[in-house]
């Protein structure tokens, strides 16, 4: 307003000055035009006016012009002010509209970020039907036991649990450091758990009242170990090291506590994401047995030097590493295979992880599409990984591409059901394109044109030498080691022989007594006798880091081992035959006694006298050669009886096998029926969900149509009212 008034006065004064300067010239020109005194000129006319009438006569009638000028200027300034006000109002209207749009966008941003997890219902929908909606947020790195406990408690207390996940940028801005895991990994792990009904992606660090109101949240949960402590591993009262000393950490739940909706749940323990990360780092750093521990101390037979390993690692206190912490067969063997055989050997060994896990299922495949083989099979692995990942989590994938041979691939799934689902979906699928089918005249595909996929037992179920292991020659002498437990890895077994020069080759062989035994060739073959002398029958391991056991060692070769194995099998067969014959004789004797008992019970006392005369007279003594014939006949009868017994046992075994096969087939049929029912139930659920979505979409469309009709009716009503008003106005004007 002040600027407008100042501009008005400046404009008025400038116009007044201009009028005083120009008006004498205008009056002189007007006098010249009216009197015809053009011969005097402009300046002569001015001089004549001053000479005849004085100086004031130059400004005669100036007030009329000044009045008109001032009036015109006032009108123009008023008009300009009105236009400026209109423009300012338009700017304010535009800013207000922009603010309203921004507010509407902000009000809907939380609902747009909510995605379903274990429930198809959104939190505001659950709140509308009276369910209790609770909220818990965090970064959820590693999802350790304390975090899982909070989520379980929230799932137990709430009808609908909303879990917020902070993005990497939000975590970094709030804590000062980047999270230990990426956002996609944290979000994916959380989706695989059954605790969250819905997930709020890119959740804000501070829980605001707008978030609570928009998602209809009644309670906000938090642990006794705060979110900031969990993410930083430090005290929440002190600022982060990456921040300035003057900056303090703001309580993310301050607004919730002010509103009285915050509820604290006791944490399971004091574990944090930082502790879990340190535990994993230490486990990896100290998993190299050759660098962290001198494994020669594991040999403790009482005669050699005994050095006990007592690791003073404080992070192992309370750490749950199992019976053999930090040392896994797959880690060490995978490293050695990668160094010796390259990346493919390491990937092949990766699929043999956790040999004791019977749930691991291997999927073998061949007959891939011809388009995949265009670049000599280089793209097969990426395409297979993308294809198989749709059926579940892959734990390993190995592709064998050899010139002149059929390209095959092996894949390992985390769950058996995933492998079975992949086989059902892929096996027998025609791999030809539409063009190839037309070129073949739409004939059925050949066997090599159909995708082949079958489940095979994992490599751990059929032990075989690792890629780095070479077969032992038949005449080569080696150590046969027995008695080590299944928890021992290849690295631990190799480390046992470090004191004797180290192991050159190691091969595992399945064994019925110990599960597996090892054939070992030392780098220094001259120390085999020393190994047998010091290790055979000795106790190895400390019982803390390495499981304690008694080793049996002997020097042998493949030929000797084969002979011993054959002799052992013969002994076992002989013992089995002896046991079988003893069993046959026992049953024969029992049958004979049973028959005699029955015959004895069937005879009555009054018949004994009548039957006595019918008894056959005693035969005369036979010559000496008859007993030999009788013995031969008895042997033949015994052999025949034994053969009959054997046939009877075989028949019974076949019947039992048939019954077992029938029971297995029936169980398989029931399993397939259960799977079919489960699939049908899942399909019905999906159909019901789709039907619900269609119903909601239909209701929304009907609502929009109804609103449109109401707006149209309102518009027509206003038009009619305006028309009637115009008619009345015109009538009044005519009157």
TrEMBL record:
Solcar repeat residue numbers: 2-86
Q: Which InterPro entries match?
A: Ect1/PCYT2 (IPR044608), MCP_dom_sf (IPR023395), MCP_transmembrane (IPR018108), Nucleotide-bd_a/b_plait_sf (IPR012677), RBD_domain_sf (IPR035979), Rossmann-like_a/b/a_fold (IPR014729)
Stretches for region Disordered: 226-247, 586-735
Which UniProt keywords are given for this protein, alphabetically ordered?
Answer: Lipid biosynthesis, Lipid metabolism, Membrane, Nucleotidyltransferase, Phospholipid biosynthesis, Phospholipid metabolism, Transferase, Transmembrane
Gene Ontology MF terms in the entry: ethanolamine-phosphate cytidylyltransferase activity; nucleic acid binding
Pathway(s) the chain acts in: Phospholipid metabolism
Q: Which GO terms describe its biological process?
A: phosphatidylethanolamine biosynthetic process
Q: Lipid biosynthesis: present as a keyword of the record?
A: yes
- Chief site of localization: membrane
Query: Highest taxon of the source?
Result: Eukaryota
Give the matching Pfam families: Mito_carr
Q: Does the keyword Hydrolase apply?
A: no
* GO CC annotation terms, alphabetical: cytoplasm; membrane
**Compositional bias (Basic residues) spans?**
629-638
Basic and acidic residues composition bias: which ranges?
Answer: 586-612, 639-658, 667-682, 691-735
Q: Where is the composition biased (Acidic residues)?
A: 613-624
The membrane topology of this protein is: Multi-pass membrane protein
Instruction: List the Gene3D superfamilies hit by this protein, alphabetically.
Output: 3.30.70.330, HUPs (3.40.50.620), Mitochondrial carrier domain (1.50.40.10)
Q: Where in the cell is it found?
A: Membrane
UniProt lists the family membership as follows: Belongs to the cytidylyltransferase family.
Q: Which protein are we looking at?
A: Ethanolamine-phosphate cytidylyltransferase (CTP:phosphoethanolamine cytidylyltransferase) (Phosphorylethanolamine transferase)
């Amino acid at each position: 307003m002040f600027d407008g008034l100042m501009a008005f006065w400046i404009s008025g004064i400038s116009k007044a000055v201009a009028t005083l300067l120009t008006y004498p010239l205008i009056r002189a020109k007007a006098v010249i035009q009216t009197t015809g005194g053009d011969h005097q000129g402009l300046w002569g006319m001015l001089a004549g006016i001053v000479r005849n009438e004085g100086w004031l006569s130059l400004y005669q009638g100036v007030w009329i012009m000044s009045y008109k000028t001032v009036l015109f200027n006032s009108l123009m300034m008023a008009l300009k002010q009105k236009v400026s006000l209109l423009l300012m109002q338009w700017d304010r209207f535009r800013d207000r509209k922009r603010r309203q749009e921004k507010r509407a966008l902000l009000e809907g941003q939380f609902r747009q970020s909510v995605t379903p997890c274990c429930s198809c219902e959104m939190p505001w929908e659950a709140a509308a039907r009276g369910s209790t909606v609770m909220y818990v947020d965090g970064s959820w790195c590693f999802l350790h036991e304390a975090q899982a406990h909070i989520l379980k408690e929230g799932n137990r207390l709430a009808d609908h649990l909303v879990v917020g996940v902070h993005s990497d940028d939000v975590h970094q801005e709030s804590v000062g450091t980047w999270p230990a895991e990426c956002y996609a990994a944290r979000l994916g792990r959380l989706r695989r758990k059954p605790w969250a009904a819905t997930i709020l992606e890119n959740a804000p660090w501070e829980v605001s009242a707008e978030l609570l109101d928009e998602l209809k949240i009644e309670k906000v949960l938090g642990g006794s170990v705060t979110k900031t402590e969990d993410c930083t591993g430090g005290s929440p009262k002190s600022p982060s090291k990456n921040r300035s000393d003057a900056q303090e950490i703001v309580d993310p739940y301050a607004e919730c506590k002010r509103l009285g909706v915050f509820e604290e749940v006791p944490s399971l323990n004091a574990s944090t994401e930082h502790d879990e990360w340190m535990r994993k780092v230490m486990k990896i750093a100290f998993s190299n047995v050759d660098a962290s521990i001198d494994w020669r101390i594991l040999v403790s037979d009482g005669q050699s030097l005994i050095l006990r390993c007592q690791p003073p690692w404080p992070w192992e206190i309370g750490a749950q590493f199992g019976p053999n912490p930090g040392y896994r067969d797959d880690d060490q063997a995978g490293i050695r295979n990668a160094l010796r055989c390259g990346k493919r050997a390491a990937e092949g060994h990766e699929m043999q992880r956790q040999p004791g896990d019977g749930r691991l299922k291997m999927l073998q495949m061949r007959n891939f599409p011809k388009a995949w083989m265009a670049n000599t099979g280089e793209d097969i692995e990426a395409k297979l990984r993308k294809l198989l990942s749709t059926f579940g989590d892959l734990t390993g994938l190995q592709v064998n591409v050899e010139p002149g041979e059929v390209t095959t691939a092996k894949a390992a799934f985390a769950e058996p059901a995933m492998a079975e689902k992949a086989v059902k979906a892929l096996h027998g699928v025609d791999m030809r394109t539409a063009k190839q089918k037309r070129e073949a005249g739409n004939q059925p595909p050949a066997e090599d044109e159909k995708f082949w996929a079958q489940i095979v037992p994992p490599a751990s179920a059929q032990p075989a030498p690792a890629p780095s292991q070479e077969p032992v020659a038949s005449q080569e002498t080696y150590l046969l080691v027995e008695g080590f437990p299944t928890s021992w890895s290849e690295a631990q077994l190799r480390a046992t022989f470090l004191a004797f020069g180290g192991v050159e080759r190691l091969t595992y062989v399945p064994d019925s007594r110990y599960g597996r035994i090892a054939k070992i060739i030392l780098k220094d073959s001259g120390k085999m006798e020393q190994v047998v002398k010091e290790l055979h029958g000795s106790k190895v391991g400390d019982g803390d880091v390495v499981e304690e056991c008694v080793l049996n060692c002997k020097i042998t070769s493949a030929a000797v081992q084969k002979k011993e194995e054959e002799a052992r099998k013969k002994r076992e067969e002989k013992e089995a035959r002896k046991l079988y014959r003893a069993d046959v004789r026992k049953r024969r004797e029992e049958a004979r006694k049973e028959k005699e008992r029955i015959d004895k019970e069937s005879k009555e006392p009054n018949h004994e006298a009548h039957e006595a005369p019918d008894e056959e007279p005693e035969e005369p003594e036979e010559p000496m050669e008859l007993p030999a014939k009788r013995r031969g006949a008895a042997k033949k009868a015994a052999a025949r009886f034994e053969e009959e017994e054997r046939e009877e046992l075989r028949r019974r075994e076949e019947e039992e096998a048939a019954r077992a096969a029938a029971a297995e087939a029936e169980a398989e049929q029931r399993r397939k029926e259960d799977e079919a029912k489960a699939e049908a139930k899942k399909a019905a659920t999906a159909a019901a969900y789709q039907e619900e979505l269609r119903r909601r979409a239909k209701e929304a469309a009907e609502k929009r149509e109804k609103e449109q009709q109401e707006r149209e009716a309102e518009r027509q009503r206003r038009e009619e009212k305006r028309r009637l008003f115009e008619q009345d106005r015109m009538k009044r004007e005519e009157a």
